[in-house]
Amino acid sequence: MQEIDSAIRLENVIQRRLNFELGPLNLDIPKGFITAIVGPNGCGKSSMFRLLLELEKPDGGKLSILEHTVGAGSDTELKQKIGYLPEHPYTGDDGMRASAKAEFYKFWYSNWDGNRYRELLRMLEVDDSGRLGKMSKGTRRKFDIALALAHAPELLLLDEPSSGLDPLAWKKMIELLHQYMDSGNRTIVMTSHIVEEVKRLADFIVFMADGRIIGMYEKDELFSSWQTLFLSGEGLNAEVAAAMPGQCGVEYAGGTTFRVITNDAAAAEAWREREGLRLVSRQMLTLDEILEALVLKDRKSYRFNDVKGARS
Q1: Given this model, what pLDDT does residue 304 score?
Q2: Domain count, the chain
């Protein structure tokens, strides 16, 4: 199997704040794919983006983007290869006309494509003659998407890209991002709370909670592996059900039936047959349900390790 190069690599990255600690983060995001980072609000997704862009500094660890170590020497050439869409627009330029901001971008990006910029404005139905502060939230979002794409970056960092978009604009954004990836040598790393957005776009999904990365999965494998099984059988109890391979949650469902969540459906099915248990029903988990199960499992493990460490 051919080895895939890294677009982003984090090694033991830590950032400490007064009431929150991010990390240590260890993550390897592959080139040429779309990776979605999902997790509860405040888990550290946007902070990780700011660290990658040197908008904030880590307290420890190493970050690299496109084989360039962040914070080591000049990064002018690297920044030319990155497009960034923050979750919230910068309000300091509200008095500026959109066309003037585009000229500003043109100055900083040597590969700025004016024709592509105009095409993006047309496709997104944006008029750049007005002032940014007078734009609706959706129009401002579409304008910022055009800015992020117009210099054909090698890497796109998108923080909640669909925020403020209506359904028609959302569909157009999905189409544009698919087109962006057509060349085969580009990478998108995005955060999103929109399940359908992740399902339509992502090749890989990274889960975050409480400032930590709690798993990275290939999307199709993730959804096929995570299932809820309703099992019944003589002698079945919570202890027996907890022995299921990949078990991430057990709940009594009445009678001799238990509801068990597994992250390894194939191994769980083989185990069920060996145990002689009856499959009452099977359900695929949604992305939100998988996140909830992972967070609960991670927090239990984290508390256990804290107690274990305190005793040793």
Answers
A1: 43
A2: 2
